[in-house]
Amino acid sequence: MSDRLRVKEASGLLLFLNTQLKGWSRKNIKQRLKTGCVLVNDQQIMKHDHELNVGDNVEVRAAGKNTQLGVRHLEILYSDNDLVVINKPAGLLSVASANENKQHALAILRKQLSHAKNAVALWPVHRLDRDTSGVLMFATSREMRDAVNEGWSGAEKTYLAVVEGSPKPSKGRIDQPLRMDPEKYQMIVGPHSEAKNAVTHFKTLRTVKELTLLEVKLETGRQHQIRAHMAWLGHSVIGDPRYGTDGPRMGLHALSLSITRPNTGKRLTFEAPAPVEFLDLLR
User: Fold this and answer.
1) d(CA 190, CA 214)
2) Around Cβ 1, how many Cβ atoms within 10 Å?
3) What's the DSSP call for residue 118?
4) Helices 13-20 and 26-34: crossing angle, nearest 10°?
5) What's the pLDDT at 152?
6) How many CA within 13 A on the CB side of residue 155?
7) Is 80 annotated in the active site?
8) How would you classify the pairing of strands 252-260 and 133-139?
9) Cα(174)–Cα(23) distance, rounded to whole angstroms?
10) Could you write out the DSSP letters of every residue in 220-283?
11) In what order do the strands lie in the sheet with 38-40?
12) N or C: which end of the chain has fewer CB within 10 A?
């Protein structure tokens, strides 16, 4: 969802945003400016001191809906000869789509790791939705990708989710099958001949006014699983127009991933702390 504002008194852009966007931190507002989320009269503006005139229209777009055109370097959490794990920012595709084949995590990481005489090949082990941030893993060979996926049922995946309301009881297990509606591109929850088993565990960490921060662990890894299950429970992930309502960014972050490494049997755990703009959702 975009915030659309009308200027009633001339002022600088940053001052105007700080005044109008109630509940937003200054850091979050500056981040919107820095990443090109702010438009004045349909023109992208990134200068804090841009002068606004009476009657100007200001639009603040959701960070998660950006294409992350400015991303050229990704944070690497772990790398060895076989695996590379990154902290994916919200708003960036994991891999190419029908509409975007250049600006995605896989392409950026390949370019980042490659040298003039050494082009790096990478295969995605799993994926995160565009608007979900956090731990994302790639393999440097198809064989390693396949080996990790063979043991994927033993992987431990932990997320943080900011949801609407306060789940009662404060923790629980959702065991509801999921199937994709290809026309709406949305998961349908409930028994069906085409539905697949899906199990989600959640635990309340903190409640702030009408929002709750949850720790979520997955037994299965179905597409949109957390988003669909929490909406079914009556507590949609915020910033998710597909299953709930839109907002500054989607309240979903892949906090940690733990796998058993093929060949060695060693247990590896990767963690990505929640970004500031995610935590700002609760402030």
Assistant:
1) 23
2) 13
3) B
4) 130
5) 95
6) 23
7) no
8) parallel
9) 32
10) S--TTHHHHHHHHHT-PBTT-TTTS---SS-SEEEEEEEEEPTTT--EEEEE-PPPHHHHGGG-
11) 3-6, 57-60, 38-40, 43-44
12) C
User: Chain centroid to CA 170: how far?
Assistant: 24
Please name the amino acid found at residue 92: L
What is the rounded CA–CA span in Å between residue 169 and residue 156? 23
pLDDT tens, residue order, the chain (283 aa): 457 889 999 999 999 998 988 777 787 788 778 767 788 887 778 788 899 999 999 988 765 444 455 677 899 999 999 999 999 999 899 998 766 666 899 999 999 999 877 888 999 999 999 999 999 999 999 999 999 999 999 999 999 999 999 999 999 999 999 999 988 889 999 999 999 999 999 999 999 989 999 999 999 999 999 999 999 999 999 999 899 988 778 999 999 999 999 999 999 999 999 998 899 898 7
Length of the chain in terms of residues written = 283
* Torsion angle of the four alpha carbons 221, 223, 225, 226, in this order, in degrees rounded to the nearest 10: 100
Say whether 172 sits in a helix, a strand or coil. Answer: strand
Catalytic residue among 42, 49, 56, 129: 129
- Residue 153 CB partners (closer than 8 Å, separation 6+): none
Q: Are 27 and 48 in contact (CB under 8 A)?
A: no
Give the SS3 label for residue 123: strand
SS3 content of the chain, % helix, strand, coil (to 5): 20, 35, 45
Total-model pTM: 0.77
- pLDDT at position 67 is 45
